[in-house]
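Practice problem 4.
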């Protein structure tokens, strides 16, 4: 053993030279520094610093009531004073998004919970069997005979034909759309017979198949599958909307699962798909969008998706600036918001347009518009807002 190790007074074989206060305590040691043993500080109760200096937030330093950690003292906090580093306060500015920024790629991230509060898993393709054939025939019959008639379009024969005839016909060429039809039908049966666990299991299985097939289809979006992908996302939104009935209202909690699923199956996909179906006269989704009395295509903006008709005297403009009046207070930013939240004209317009859309739904309810019109606006919510 080298001499520098054997000469250390704290490394004798008996260990009797250690003082009682050193017992049970970790001692940091390096060769040649025997006389400068550094003791670790005891653990103290703490909380995470949200308003500390930039150094402490970057290093995830915790705040305690002592100068040995980030005590948020100005101009130099305890942690920076101890480390002899520059203490910089305030938050770094968020880089603004420029026009050259590449838009985020659309993707599916299912986060919805089921009726029994179990997580969705993407199912493997079930094996071919007589039981599977009977189950899927039963689900298709349920959808075409009953489920499609419950989508709240009692007086719209065009919509009834599209949901009951045209969409199933298109689904024979696209697995994701076919599975989404089975999913809708299975959920409908589970709602009608809630005491039969097998119905819920069927719904879970086909929802998983829908999500897997839909992700694959979106990954290779093109002119041949864009229409089916949009309709599949609509079926998923209807499922999540129906599941809101199972959400307890006391105490009130925001419908996070619905918003999360809707955001991944809404505007992002439709904007991408619109490039392929905007000029397709045979597109079912295009037909449903154009048939809405308060929406039409925007010929003035290349690549745009939808907009409300600002120049005709049809139904009230769902994005009219006066619509946001009842919710204007939600746009008021507190000093804390100004200090901590990113903000630019694009973010402000996203908040403002969302409030105008929500207010238009409230105004439609107050005006006692037909349930079909209100239902359509609710289901289209994630598609229309930014």
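Answer key:
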């Amino acid at each position: 053993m080298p001499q520098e190790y054997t000469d250390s007074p704290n490394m004798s074989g008996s260990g009797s030279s250690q003082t009682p206060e050193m017992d049970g305590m970790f001692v940091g040691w390096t060769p040649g520094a025997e006389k400068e043993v550094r003791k670790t500080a005891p653990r103290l109760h703490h909380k995470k610093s949200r308003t500390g200096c930039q150094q402490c937030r970057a290093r995830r330093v915790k705040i305690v009531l002592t100068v040995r950690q980030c005590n948020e003292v100005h101009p130099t906090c305890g942690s920076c004073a101890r480390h002899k580093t520059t203490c910089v306060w305030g938050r770094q500015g968020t880089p603004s998004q420029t026009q050259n920024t590449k838009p985020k790629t659309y993707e599916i991230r299912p986060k919805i919970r089921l009726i029994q509060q179990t997580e969705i898993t993407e199912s493997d393709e079930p094996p071919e069997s007589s039981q599977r054939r009977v189950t899927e025939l039963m689900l298709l019959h349920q959808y075409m005979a009953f489920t499609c008639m419950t989508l709240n379009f009692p007086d719209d024969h065009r919509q009834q034909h599209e949901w009951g005839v045209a969409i199933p016909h298109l689904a024979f060429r696209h697995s994701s759309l076919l599975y989404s039809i089975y999913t809708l039908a299975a959920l409908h049966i589970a709602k009608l017979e809630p005491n039969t666990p097998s119905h819920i299991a069927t719904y879970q299985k086909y929802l998983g198949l829908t999500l897997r097939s839909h992700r694959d289809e979106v990954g290779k979006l093109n002119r041949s599958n864009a229409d089916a992908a949009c309709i599949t996302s609509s079926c998923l939104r209807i499922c999540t909307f129906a599941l809101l009935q199972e959400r307890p209202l006391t105490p009130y909690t925001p419908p996070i699962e619905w918003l999360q699923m809707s955001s991944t199956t809404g505007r992002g996909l439709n904007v991408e798909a619109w490039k392929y179906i905007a000029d397709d006269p045979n597109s079912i989704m295009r037909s449903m969008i154009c048939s809405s009395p308060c929406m039409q295509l925007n010929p003035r903006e290349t690549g745009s998706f939808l907009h409300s008709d600002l120049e005709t005297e049809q139904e009230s403009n769902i994005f009219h600036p006066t619509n946001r009046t009842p919710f204007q207070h939600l746009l008021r930013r507190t000093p804390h918001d100004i200090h901590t939240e990113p903000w630019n004209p694009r973010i402000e317009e996203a908040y403002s347009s969302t409030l105008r859309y929500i207010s238009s739904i409230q105004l439609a309810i107050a005006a006692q518009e037909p349930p079909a019109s209100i239902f359509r606006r609710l289901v289209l919510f994630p598609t229309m807002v930014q």
